[in-house]
Amino acid sequence: MKIILTHEVSGLGAAGDVVDVKDGYARNYLVPRGFAIRWTKGGEKDVAQIRRARKIHEIATIEQANQIKAQLESVKVQLAVRSGDAGRLFGSVTPADIASAIKSAGGPDVDKRRVELGAPIKTLGSHQVSVRLHPEVAANLGVEVVAA
Questions:
Q1: With 70 as the cut, is the pLDDT of residue 55 above it?
Q2: pLDDT level of residue 42 (50, 70, 90 thresholds)
Q3: In what order do the strands lie in the sheet with 2-5?
Q4: Mean pLDDT across the stretch 130-145?
Q5: What separation in angstroms does the CA of 69 have from each of 30, 76, 94, 95, 110?
Q6: Are 129 and 54 in contact (CB under 8 A)?
Q7: Cys-Cys crosslink for 130: which of 30, 51, 62, 116, Cβ 3.0 to 4.6 Å?
Q8: What's the Rg (C-alpha) of the chain?
Q9: Which helix (H) or strand (E) holds 34?
């Protein structure tokens, strides 16, 4: 099935790309979550609009991405959440929580869709998080999850 990506999908493409994927993947995952729309002849107009919006939010050069990476890796991110007695969280830490914690710690403004968690964060302690700034540049930062 041909689809138009509306968001960056790791391993598949960036917003505005027209890609061909298996029908089930598109129908059951990408389209319901808003990551893609079905490709139509009229959808070509949407592609141009999505690409213009992507250029506005995109980090243009690798040098700029490396500067932001240096800023991110120098920031100490601490996130206070509610937890139980054994150190287990009530719920989990989301990429949106991490993006807002980076901003409140004095770091650069990061889009929550660029924050990549290897596994859901459900315990107190120190965790490693990756932020994909550019297709070739990713920043790794430590997030300290503490009890509120």
A1: no
A2: confident
A3: 18-20, 2-5, 36-38
A4: 88
A5: 29, 13, 20, 17, 11
A6: no
A7: 116
A8: 18
A9: none
What contacts 41, CB < 8 A, 6 or more positions away?
A: none
Number of residues assigned to the chain: 148
For residue 34, which of 58, 50, 11 has the smallest C-alpha distance?
50
Tokens of 27: 């129908």
Phi, psi of 134, rounded to the nearest 5 degrees? -150, 155
Choice among 29-43, 48-62, 117-131 with the minimum mean pLDDT: 48-62
CB burial of 91-119 (b: ≥16 within 10 Å; e: otherwise) equals eebebebbbebbeeeebeebeebbbebee
Higher pLDDT, 43 or 104: 104
pLDDT value for 59:
61
Residue 6: what pLDDT? 83
pLDDT of residue 57: 60
Q: At 142, is the secondary structure helix, strand, or coil?
A: strand
d(CA 141, CA 25): 31
Contact present, 148 and 79 (Cβ < 8 Å): no
